[in-house]
Amino acid sequence: MSQSIQRAAEVLELVAQEPRTQAEIAARLGVHRSTALRTLQTLCDAGLTRRRADGRYGLGYRLAGLANVAAEQFDLREIARPALERLGRECRHTVHLAALDGDAIVYVDKIEQPGMVRLYSQIGQRVVLHTAGVSKAILAFQPSDVVERMLQGHEFTAHTTTTITNRPDFDRALAAVRERGWAEDDAEYEDFANCVAMPVRDAGDSVVAAVSITSLRASADLGTLRGLTPLLAETTAGISRDLGWRPAGPETTDPQEAYR
Amino acid sequence: MSQSIQRAAEVLELVAQEPRTQAEIAARLGVHRSTALRTLQTLCDAGLTRRRADGRYGLGYRLAGLANVAAEQFDLREIARPALERLGRECRHTVHLAALDGDAIVYVDKIEQPGMVRLYSQIGQRVVLHTAGVSKAILAFQPSDVVERMLQGHEFTAHTTTTITNRPDFDRALAAVRERGWAEDDAEYEDFANCVAMPVRDAGDSVVAAVSITSLRASADLGTLRGLTPLLAETTAGISRDLGWRPAGPETTDPQEAYR
DNA sequence: GCTCCTTGTTGCACCTGCCGCAACGGCGTG
DNA sequence: CACGCCGTTGCGGCAGGTGCAACAAGGAGC
């Protein structure tokens, strides 16, 4: 909507990847050198970026402060953290927490294992809807109009040989998720990584987030991960309960409960 | 420089304080409601803010991700962290690390103690130059032209009865710092908090940062804090060494060393 | 049921303030 | 010494940000 703010945000993403020179940023943004400079100056004033000793621009100190505050505002993250850490300790794999954020699904937290390869995901990033386990775990339990809206215009780009590349196949995958209760990513984004994921529900019984266990196929294949679903179920049930969710009794499994 | 980016940064600060409504933000910015909305939408698109369940706007998840990356770019912080944590464990008070960042001094890291009152400082925030211990510890060892530039237009606002309110007194304070090797904040900003601070030097023997120990007067007065200066000296010397600083031999204590 | 309030959204006209350009100076490197 | 890179400044043009008004939708309160 607002061009210059959009550009400023792009600058943040650029210098987050690695500190960059003013000329490089101007080139990547496709704007004149002086324009990039003015943007950078404003951002530096605000402490969001900073000029480093080597002359390149990097992220600013203020970001760390804002993030500290932000973490306090993330009720979900705060609530889920202990459960995620426990899961991480017990399964020894990378754990992700992703949540619905408007019409997108974003990574909200991540537990990494010491010595493990870093995965592509970053906190705050949008999840690739048609490949990630967490997105399937969430989408499978959304009303169809929500799914429709979120997938509108979505490109089913092939990243590996197992990527789901069309809507009908994806719908079948969601149906499978609903049936068995968990979602999988069978090396659909990176051919060396796979994962299992399960949904998290809130007090209104809506699925608002999902937790996944990701591993390198070399260290644990899908079959091994499936063996971890009981552990994962325990984790997601715990988080859901902390969010105020109440396990449905047999009589409340019908749609009548919607009337509270 | 760039108005809309400046506003966007203000928005970030506003919602960092607490989640706010669109109308509130518009009022604080002094702009029309629709303008504020457009700014917010752009920021939300970038993940820097987000619309919360209660309709108010808060900080976005992407900030947490950016901050993770940012922390990796902060060499000083990375290097100093272990020493600060150790100091925190040993003195049981709040520990600050502040650094020169262009023509400002900003908090770079902070060790809080469980159960302690939260202090005003936030990572990334500019230090109040005439009251903070860290700023005196840094300014006392800067070339006079740098001090001049940084204090240009600075207001010596009184925050408590002990605040230094004019330049000559401040210069005398800096001289005292040079003499005894550490700086103090005698309840100059908040009447219930005081601190001691010492400088950190880099490989070129320049003072680039400072570490402070802050406490509530009720829990430890200035006299008690002064007793901690040996511990503080150990910490700053350790960080300085990690930055490549070499303790000066007796013959290099004269100004000749400036010629390297 | 009703109203009142807040918010999201859209269209439009105005004009601010951002953009691109060019030129100069400083600094470090080859 | 030349060259490249960067910061800075002034200026004209115009894109795009801004303010305004009007409407719809949702919620709270009565």
What is the fold's blueprint, element by element?
The structure is a homodimer of 260-residue chains.
Chain A: H1 3-17, H2 22-29, H3 33-45, E1 49-51, E2 57-59, H4 61-73, H5 75-91, E3 94-101, E4 104-111, H6 133-139, H7 144-151, H8 167-180, E5 183-185, E6 193-201, E7 207-216, H9 222-226, H10 229-242
Antiparallel strand pairs in A: 1-2, 3-4, 3-7, 5-6, 6-7
Helix pairs in contact in A: 2-3, 5-10
Chain A binds a DNA duplex (30 and 30 nucleotides) through α3.
Low-pLDDT stretches of chain A are 250-260
Helix content of chain A: 40-55%
Order of helices and strands of chain A: HHHEEHHEEHHHEEEHH
The secondary-structure class of chain A comes to alpha+beta
CATH architecture of the largest domain in chain A: 2-Layer Sandwich
Largest interface: A-B, 52 and 52 residues
Question: In oligomeric terms, what are we looking at?
Answer: homodimer
Strand order of the largest sheet of chain A: 4-3-7-6-5
Query: Which CATH class of the largest domain in chain A applies here?
Result: Alpha Beta
**Straight-line N-to-C gap of chain A:** 40 Å
CATH topology of the largest domain in chain A: Beta-Lactamase
What is the name of the CATH superfamily of the largest domain in chain A?
GAF domain
Radius of gyration of chain A from the CA trace?
Answer: 21 Å
How many H/I helical runs of chain A? Answer: 10
Mean pLDDT of chain A: 84
Number of domains of chain A: 2
